[in-house]
Write a structure and sequence with these properties.
- This protein is α/β, with parallel strands linked by helices.
- It contains 13 helices and 17 strands.
- The protein is globular, with a radius of gyration of 22 Å.
- The N and C termini lie far apart (48 Å).
Length: 413
Amino acid sequence: MNRFKALGSGVAAAVLAVAGLGTAAALSSGQASGATVSPNALGNNWYAAAPYLMPTDNNPPDATAIMDATGLKAFQLAFILAPNGGGCSPTWSGTSPVSSDTAVGGVISAIRAKGGDVSVSIGGYGGTKLGQACSDAASTAAAYQQVITKYQLKAIDFDLEEPEYENTAAVAHEIGAAKILQQNNPGLYVSVTTAGTAAGTGWFGQQMLNEAKSQGFTPNNFSIMPFDGGFNGAASQTSALTAFNGLLKTTFGWDTATAYAHEGFSGMNGRSDSGEYFYQADFQTVLDYATSHGMGRFTFWSLNRDRQCNPPDNGTTSGTCSSVAQNPWDFAKFSVKFAGATPPSNPPTTTPPTTTPPGGGSCTVAEWSASAVYVNGNEVAHNGHKWKAKWWTTNEEPGTTGEWGVWQDEGAC
C-alpha cells in the first residue's frame, strides 16, 4: 500500500507543535528533551490492537486526546527506515536519526504518562529499509536494538512490503533480525505485516513465510493488509483472511486454531490508495470475524486518517482524513473493542450558546468548544471575537496560539 510515498515529510518539531503533541505544556522538562517515561505494563492484547500513527508527518493528531475520546491505550508508531543518504542506522522516515530524536520521544512520554504505551513499526511502503542497507541479520538487529533501547520498547512491528520484500537477502536480514531481537529481549511482542491478496498473500509474502520457517522464527503474529488489491468491502477481506489461515497451516504445520492465533488483520480505514472503500460497518464485520476466530491482531492504517475530510469524500485518498463520513476516531474504537475494552460513549450533542461580548452585540456563530473538532473554514465565537480555523484542530483555544496558530481572528462580533 502507498503508506509512505504519498505521505508528507514535514519538520517534526513544527508538526508536533501544531498537532499539540509533545508541547512544553503537556510534558515535563525531561520529556520535552526526548526522554521517555518507563513503559506501562500493558497486556499483549493492547499491542495487538494498536493502530498506526505517524508521529511526525500527515498532520499528526494528539494521541492523548484520542486516548481520552476512545479508551485506546496503545499506538503503532511509523516508520523506522535506513537513512536516505545511506548507512545502517535507524531513522524516522529516513530523515531524523533515532539517536538524536526528541520529538517522537516526547509523544511517547505523553502517551505513557496517561497509562498507555507504543509499538514501533519498521519498514512500510517505499523508502530504504534497514534490511536492505545493513550487511546481515546481526547488523540489522543491532540497528533495531537501538530503537528498542532508546524508547524502552515492549513491542515492535516488521512491516515487510514493497520494494524490500522482493529482495531475498533483505527479507532474510529482517527475519533474522526479528529472531535475534526476540531472543535478546524476552517478552518482546513481535508482529510481521505484509501485503494481502485474495489468496491470502502473494508470491513474495509466501517467500517471507518460508524464510521464517527456515530460520525457525515464530512471531506473535503474521498480519496481512487486505486492501489495495481489488478488494471490495468486508466480505472480500474475511475471505482473504480465511485463505491466509490456510497458508499458515500448510507452511508451519499448524492446526486451524493455532494459525488463527498467529494471524492478524491490518486494514485501511475509509478510502484506500486504489480507490476501495472500507466503512465502519466493514470494520465491524472484520472485527466480528477476528474475535470469533480467535485471531491474534486487529489494526489499521491510520489514526492520522481517522477523521472526516471536508467535504467528507472528494474522490481522493488523503493521509490526513478518511474520505468517508465519520466522527473523529470512529475506527480507533474498533481497536479498543478488539483489545477487550469498551470505548466511552459519546457525550450528548448540545447546541452551544452564542457569545455576548461586553458592550452589546452578539456573535452569530457557535461558541468554541474544547471537545469539538474543527476543520479549515469552520468559524466559532470566543471572548467576543469571531475566529476561523485554518486547518484541523481540537482543544486549541482561540487567541492563545498567536498569529501563527490555527485560529484567524476575524474581529469583534
